Amino acid sequence: MKLNIVIAILLFFSLKTNYLIGQKNNQVKHTISIFSGYTYYTTYEPILSSVRQSSTFLTTGFEYSKKNKEKHQLSFKLILLPKTDLTSRLSNDGFRAPNKGEIFGGSFEFLYQKLLRKKGTYMYLGLHLNGVYLDKSLNVISFDDARAVDLFLDLGPSFSITKDLGKHQIKANLNLPFIGYVAAKTRNSETFPFDLIERDKNIGTALQYGDIALINDYFNLNFNAEYSFKITSRFLMGLQYGFQYYDYKKEAPFNVQAISYRFLLQAKYQF
Prior knowledge:
Blueprint: H1 2-22, E1 28-45, E2 51-68, E3 72-90, E4 100-117, E5 121-137, E6 147-165, E7 168-175, E8 179-183, H2 203-208, E9 211-214, E10 218-230, E11 235-251, E12 254-270
Antiparallel strand pairs: 1-2, 1-12, 2-3, 3-4, 4-5, 5-6, 6-7, 6-8, 7-10, 8-9, 10-11, 11-12
């Protein structure tokens, strides 16, 4: 049932996107962006005897956006986080074990917003659908292939602001959750670390065993800011900064908090 709800939400966004792209309007602007840079990620899990984990990713990704300055804008963004080291630091001596593991994953974002204001500064308000997937090798205990999968989906309000200054453009976007789907329970707190759950070792099976969470159990703040410089009428170069903070109840009464921020160089082509 929960999986059917997630599929229905994804189908809605897909149909909405196809409908809007199919509309013809001579004021529509399409943009394709590619970007690369670094993402820093850190998380704190009290359930793991106060383990603090951190990683630095060499990040790549792309974004497609479609904007009608008189009505709306929509976009799809995909960010790839290739495999890298996962460093674990313990705040006590609960475990004496290696402090290196591995982590990889990625994220996506669907965005649809309606125009609120168009004089000088463009303001948009709408909905977002975000997804984050992280696969971790937890070498903080003496187990081979001790892994955890974290997968989050959330739907909620989104606000954007864009300012055009001749050849310069500044843009900011903020997403907040209304409802989330969390598939991150990779262990049983009563007997951990002796019964890592086999079913959570890949994205497909992890998705089936998730939980729907409202804002009191799950919070995800996602902020993005961009600066672009127009080199030609169609080609732009710029910088992108992203910040994300999420907090969720992994296994009561424990919460997991994580922060990530990224610095990216991006290139855009408009047509």
